[in-house]
Amino acid sequence: MEESLIYPLPNRAWLDLSATALRRNATELQRRTGLPLIPMVKANAYGVGSAGVVSALESLDPLAYGVASVDEGESLREMGIARTIIIFTPILQADYERAQAADLTAALGDAAGIRSWAPTGKPYHLAIDTGMNRAGVSWRDVATVRDVVREWPPAGAFTHFHSAEIEDGSAEEQVNRFFSAIGQLGVEIPFLHADNSAAAARGVGGGERWGAIRPGVFLYGVGSRFGVRAEPVVSLRARVVDIRWIEAGDTVSYGATYRATRRERIATAAVGYGDGYPRALSDRSAAVLNGSRVPQRGLVTMDMTMFDVTDAPCAVGDVVTLIGAEGGPELLVEGVAALAGMSPYELLTGLAPRLERRFNED
Ligand SMILES: *Cc1c(COP(=O)(O)O)cnc(C)c1O
């Protein structure tokens, strides 16, 4: 195709990622809360690709990055990131040495862990659980860490909301529990943080008590409540690699779940659940091809997915958009995830490594 000579696109399936939208989403939350950023880039930046995400966000001068493991922290260091990197999932003491060698900041929530980590002088943040019941010292049990925290004060302390996207008072209750726990410690902790994307959008933790926000999913284009809308960042695209006519009564894909009721033109896109396009979308999703909505037909397979292009102009080599802003709300990450019975987080983090990540400045 001529176009591909001018603008070489991958030949199979890929992600088009808007670095500009990513930055605009980050600055929007920063503007709303008036707080500095700790972008959450765990799980390969929610599947988007941490190398590209971090290099797009560096110009915003974030306070730190949030990861989930020593490996993720080390790989940011290998990219040349010199900022604070906080590991938000508890790590085993067996990994402390490796974490400290990479200058990573641990989130700690028990006296033994703090006693083992802190004497080296490396910073840690105190994790306080206020209702999530996942990690960190319970707000009810902060007395168990009071002595070690007084001996080796943390560089920061934080909690995490379980339902920030719901206005049911639970986030406010968690904030109260957090400050009561901080009060019981009786130590000056210079830096407190709590807001995830939904809390930052809603303004739960705004104000001078807080030092930063920790958004994740909103940066990557998910979130359209509380008077703010994340700009789409992620588009999943693939090439059409086969086109055929089928007759009424013919079936498509494994298990013959789709049976044509008319003569139909079927296009095969070179993308499947092996790329993270969920099999649960089989016989229910649609894509956009040359400006037309094309319904998906038959089971999504590992490497190929079929579409009805009877009413759309289509040639081998054309580009199908399976996730992205093109198709209106139904092709947005949230819409596709809902159709698959998944959370948007799950859809994003499932985007497979074999998809080339193409970051664009637009
Ligand atoms: C993942 C995570 C976040 C970000 O949550 P989003 O809902 O994606 O904004 C913030 N804080 C912690 C501790 C997390 O694990």
Structure description:
The protein is an alpha/beta fold and 362 residues long. It has two domains: 64-211, TIM Barrel; 232-360, Lyase, Ornithine Decarboxylase, Chain A, domain 1 (Beta Barrel). It contains twelve helices and 17 strands. The protein has helices spanning 2-6, 19-33, 42-46, 50-57, 70-78, 96-101, 111-117, 143-151, 170-185, 197-202, 333-340, 344-349, and strands at 13-18, 64-67, 84-87, 105-108, 124-129, 137-138, 156-158, 192-193, 234-246, 251-252, 258-259, 264-269, 286-289, 292-297, 305-308, 319-323, 356-360. Helix 2 packs across helix 4. It starts with a helix and ends with a strand. The mean pLDDT is 95. Residues 40, 88, 160, 196-197, 214-218 line the site of pyridoxal-5'-phosphate (PLP).
Helices and strands in order:
Elements: H1 2-6, E1 13-18, H2 19-33, H3 42-46, H4 50-57, E2 64-67, H5 70-78, E3 84-87, H6 96-101, E4 105-108, H7 111-117, E5 124-129, E6 137-138, H8 143-151, E7 156-158, H9 170-185, E8 192-193, H10 197-202, E9 234-246, E10 251-252, E11 258-259, E12 264-269, E13 286-289, E14 292-297, E15 305-308, E16 319-323, H11 333-340, H12 344-349, E17 356-360
Parallel strand pairs: 1-17, 2-3, 3-4, 4-5, 5-6, 5-7, 7-8
Antiparallel strand pairs: 1-9, 9-12, 9-16, 10-11, 12-15, 13-14, 13-16, 14-15
Pyridoxal-5'-phosphate is lined by residues 40, 88, 160, 196-197, 214-218.
